[in-house]
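Sample entry (448 residues):
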Amino acid sequence: MKRIFSVFTASAFILSYPVIATPDFKKGEVVVKGKHSSTANTIVSYYPNADISILQVPPGQELNEVNRLRSKGKQANLNVLAKKSALPNDQLVSYQWNWQSISASQAWNINTGANTKVAVLDTGLASNPVDGIGCVVAPYNVYFSHSFPEDGDGHGTHVAGTIAQTSNNTIGVSGLAYDSCVMPVKVLDDNGSGGMAEIAEGIYYAVNNGADVINMSLGINARYNIQSDPILDPAIEYAYTSGVVVVAASGNDGHRKNISFPASHELVISVGATDYNNSVVRYSNKGELLDLVAPGGDTSSDQNGDGYGDGILQETLIDGSWGYYFFQGTSMASPHVAALAAMIISNGNATTPDEVKRALTETATDLYESGKDKTSGAGLINAFEALNWMPGDVEPPLQCTDADGDGVCIEDGDCDDSNPDVYPGANDRRGKRGRDGVDNDCNLVIDG
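Predicted structure, serialized as C-alpha cells:
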C-alpha cells in the first residue's frame, strides 16, 4: 500500500448522455412540435428554429397531457432536463482511475445512491477522519455491542470509502455511491479475522436494521473449495429472502478453479478484481462460480504513469495516521459492486436481489470469451449501463411433456411419447430379421 500526502487538483469535463426512463423534467411544461394553438393550455414559448411550442400544464399532469396530445397525432414530450456532467471536485479524484474504468462519471448524472444503506461487514470504521464517510448509520460492534466499531486495521475504513467517501467537498477522494449511507459492522478483529458466528451475527444485524446491500470483503482461502457453511448459510438465506443484496470478494489466492467462501455461495454476488487495463489480475480467484469483476488494482504497476502504483485510492487510518492509501485486492473490487447495487436500488430500476444481479451481469462489459467465463464471470461492471437497465420480459419456464415417463420431454426431442423405449440417445434394436421398424433414438434413421 502507498499513501498520498500532497494535494492535487482534478479538472472537470463535460459529457453528453442519453435520456433514461424517468429523467428529471421541467415541472408544469409539455413540449409539442409546431406552433401550437391551444385552448386547454397556455403557450409559454415558441422556438421558431426548432419549430416547437412549450405549453403550460398543471404540475403532476405532464404525462397525461403528453399522452393526450400523442393520441391526437401530435409529437409531444416532457421538457426533459439535461445537466452538465463533471467529476466530483475532490482534489485527488484524478488518481482514482477506477471510476473511468466503470463509467462512473456518466452514472453520477443518473444516481448517486441516495436513500440506501450499505452494510460493510469488516474491521470497522475509524473515527475522526479528515475526509470521511458522508452518512454513517447504525454502527455495530459484534465483539463489544455497546462500543463503536472502531477500525484498528484500516481495511474496513478503506472499503467503506470506496462505497460512500464524502464527495464534492473539495478535498481528498470520492466514493461511488457517495449519497448512500454506510452501516459499519465490525465482524473482523483488528488482525483482520473473524469467525462464521461473528459474520452471521453481522448479517442478521444488518438485515434487521434496514440494510439494502451487504458487502463482505472477506473470505476463506479458495483452496478449500467451500461453497456452504452450516453457521453462515442461514444468515445469507435470511438476507436473500429479506430482499437484501449480498456481495463478497472472490479472494486473493490466485486460484484458477475455486473462489473464496462466502463469495462461492449461490445467493451471494461474487466479485473478482481488474487492473488499470481492465485485465483480471493474477491474484484474483477465478472459476465457474465467479459472477463479476470490478477494479481491484495492482500496486506493482504504474500503467497510467501517474507516479504511483495502480491501486485503489481511498482514505483510511494506518498505524494511527490518516492518509489516502493505495490498496489492491478483491476486497477493493467488491465494494465497487456493492456501491453500484445501492445506486441501482436507489434508481428504482431493480429492487430484488435477483433483479440487481441481472442488472449488474447483463450490462457488464465482456472481457474475455463471449458471455460468462471462468476468468471474469459476466465481465467488468458498467455503472452507466447498469443504471439504464430495465427488467425485460422473463422467458417462461420450459415445458416438459413426458407422457411415457422415459425422462425425456417432447420439447427435448422425444419422437414417440407413447413408448418409453423411444427417446433421443436410445439404442436402436434389431428384430428377428434384423430390423424392428422403430427409430428408437429419434435420429430419423431406423436401426441405423
